[in-house]
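User: I'm curious what two different proteins look like when written out as structure tokens. Can you demonstrate?

Assistant: Sure. I'll show them one after the other, since each token string lines up with its own sequence. Here's the first protein:
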Amino acid sequence: MQANKENPNELLELLLEKCDRQYQEIQLLKGKLEDRRDVDALKSSYEQTLSLKDEKILDLEKQVAYLKRRIWGKSSERFINENPQQRRIDFEGIDLLPEEKEQAEAAKSEIEAFRERRVKEHAKRKPVRKPLPEDLPCVEEHLYPEEISDNMDAWTELEPEITEVLEYEPGKCCVRKIIRHKYVLKNKQSLEPAKESSPIVTALLPTKYQPIARSYAGATLLAELMINKYVNHLPFYRQIQMMKQMGINLPPPTVNDWFKDTADLLRPLYYRLKELVLATDYIQVDETTVPVINNEKHKTVNGYMWVVRSVMDKQLFFHYDHGSRAQRVALSLLKDFRGALQTDGYSVYQMYEYKNGVLPLGCWAHSRRKFNESLKSDKSRAEYALQQIGLLYEVEREADDKNLSYEERAKLRESHAYPIMVAFEKWLVNEYGKVLPKSPIGKAIKYCYDIYHRLSRYHLDGRYHIDNNLCENSLRGLALGRKNYLFCGNHDAADDAAVIYSLLGCCKAADVNFRDWMVYVLSHIHDYDQDYTLDLAVLLPSNWIQRNS
């Protein structure tokens, strides 16, 4: 700059040139800044658009999954319908339609009205003590007031007050002495040569007196031992101690042999029972654990006992397959079954969705149990679910109170239970995306929704139950038993227990006296050994009580 002081014009030109460059740079920077602002605005708008589209995609995915399940499912009758014939598809989404909401509210109002009437009627009822059986032995004791002892003539007797007290006397054992007379022929030469006959004849021993060959245990004793263990849940060693108090010593190995021989004696009847149960068109299946001693591991392991119950015939059987709960057991057990199969949500039963001739049904009691377990973690959602399930059960109570036929019950379910199930299903779909999948409420919702097609099918037929509690009730005896005798000695013992539990379970279902039935069967089971024209089914409790009533 100093060198150019002699030429001011040149200096001015340099300054103007520098200013022009700075101006150009400033304009360039302003342009870049404006471009950046446009990019940020575009980015923000783009991100907002993406967020909206993600929400829309998620909503559409839920709708597509919902509609696929409705349209492309395994079979149209396996899903809940708007009516038993057809359901209108909701292409607007999975929100409850106005008419569906109206139907659900109307059904809820009718159900709650019935509940209020039932509660009021129940409050008016007073418990009535049932009279004691008239055929019981009666001993009378007369008590008189002390005041009348000095001068009875001064008193007039009124109608006395009577109090009945049920007393119990321990059982007694006795010895049945069977004298089989024997004769010998006086003149042996009188025998005909063609006949192979002995000169000595003895009266035959009827098999009813000796159910187990070469055993001194009678039918009544065997029945008492079996019933005490599998009905009264007393282990054999306690029964042996009780017998000692009566002066009778029974060796434990002998008692164990009696148990096995009795089970073998009843096993043909057990096999016949299985055939009849699996030949029906509506069964319930469940399974439970039973501790079994594993000699190789030297400890008890949990084996599984299966129970299959024919709902309409009031017959059931237990099944034990080396303690397995695997899919192969169900496949082998139910391979020939055709009809309605009601179970819980155990994944093994899912395969029957694809088997022709089988209609899987769900159990609302198990779903209700899941939501009940989630009350502490999500009270509002769990209470809503329990309330809706409670309404479904209220419909069943109304049908029971009115003693409706199967057809009438199905119609009541269609008008009252169906709208509740439609609304509840859509609630499950909407709420599942709002909860943590691994949370208790998330697991409850997923469990219920995954098998909802099975849960909702009970409304298709008035014969179908809302749950499989009948089958679960059959397991109570086994659950009480394992708390007392703790375990089965081995797999064979568990299999024998399945035989006894099955037949005693049938007695309970048919309201048959365990002891009377057991004594009769053990006394007459050998009648079927040689004559194969006789049907063992006659001895089953439901048939036996009809013959002896």
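Here's a second, unrelated protein for contrast:
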Amino acid sequence: MTSFGIWGLIPPVLTITLAFITKDVMVSLFLGIFSGAIIVAGGNPLMAIINLTDMIAGSLNDGWNIRIFLFCALLGGLVGMLSKTGSAHAFGRWAADKLHTEKTSLLMTWFCGLLIFIDDYFNSLAVGTVMRPITDKNKVSRAQLAYILDSTAAPVCILVPISSWVITVMSIVKGSEGFESLGVSEFSFFMRSIPYNLYALLTVLMVLVIVLTGRNFGPMARSIAYAKETGKLYNETYGPAPGEVDIDGNANAAKAKPLDMLFPILVLIITAVVFFPVTTYLGSIDGETITSLGAAAASMSLGDAFNNTDASMALFYAVIFTLVISYIYYTVRKLFTIKSASEAIGDGIKSMVPALIILTMAWTIGTVIKSSPEDGGLGLAAFLSDVVVGGGFPIALVPVIAFALSALISFSTGTSWGTFAIMIPIVMPIAVGLAQAKGLGDGALLNAAMISVSAVLGGSVFGDHASPISDTTILSSTGAGCPHLEHVATQMPYAVTAAICTLIGFIFGGITLNVFVAWLATLICFAAAMVFLPRVYNK
């Protein structure tokens, strides 16, 4: 038996349904996994519990997975340490002396959002805390500030390979049925798929275009006008603004300098870039033909070393190195004591616990879905691939359906990580299977997989970006000091506009399996929206 057939649909369908109803992704994922364990155990609940615990434990009994787990935890520790130094405030004080207009303060907010890419939570709170005094001085609507914070949080985190978001995606992709047939590493797959992530890239671009052109529309235009007319930076009819948030909480914050905020980020980037090829070289040392790092470097090109790297190992080494160097740096700079530094790291790691739980369950439900009955799974990926391929389902529709469904799930649940866990193991084998059935070559096969998975990523990020129950949306309101309902109301038309343009892009991209065609359709739609929406909406 290769699969449990249609019974394999129960875990993902149950997970999605419960996520809609409960808005709790953890519980939904757990019950989805348990339902799969029940099916595998033949309806025996005791055996199902035993199977479930074994599957969860097994998901962490893997070198790749445990390194990813530790990377995410230590990244949280780095963010916790960074948040306690006062460096964000120091950067804000420096920026305040340079920025004297509405446009320049908004552009700096956008730039800082791109710079702080390692964590979406820290992005929203840190950039908001830094820039809010500056934007307030320049009479910028709090709603506009919140929109930029939100649009440079999740959309940026999903584009940069040195983030918990991307390493999670790579992990799920690596474990999905059909990935091995693509002939690329998970790191190479991600890097080459970045241009296909239409929604995230368009959202970042949209912020820049609106800031530079001033073509605001809808509730956002009205909030901006209200701020200019009344001098009040938020509309109290939407409710009270969140209290002032101080993420630094350090008596020594006055000692910090702007470089103190940039230092750990630069160290992380540099060390990651170094370790990506180094880990490949180290892995190629066999003690016989290749006996040293120099010999390993001579045996392959730098490009091959990057493409074949073990991303989990490289990023794990990079974050440990960064954490140690930053710990020493901040201690020497006397921005905190050894005791407060340890507390900051601990608090940061604790903040990652929900994400780590979701990540672990993502691996587990992926295993349940992918694995054959002989390996304790349902074989759903193989079943769906056979059904879809055998039914002649058009591959052109996979990206647009994947985007729409992922957007619906993520918007309804307020989380993207849970959506990644549900959708990628389903979409990957379908896209690969359909492409192989059509006899597509290696390049077209890879394009089909990349555009389909990127559609899942884009739809998932849309929900995290736009949903009123998303924690990132809530933290963006908090960081900006904007009433949450005002932020949701003003941002929604912008997020939906980007989503519709992206949807059209995936329609044409799915038909052609060409990223240039996808972008051409997306940008034409976006340009039309920027021309007509301010005219129509602002009447």
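A detail about the second structure: The first helix runs from residue 10 to 22.
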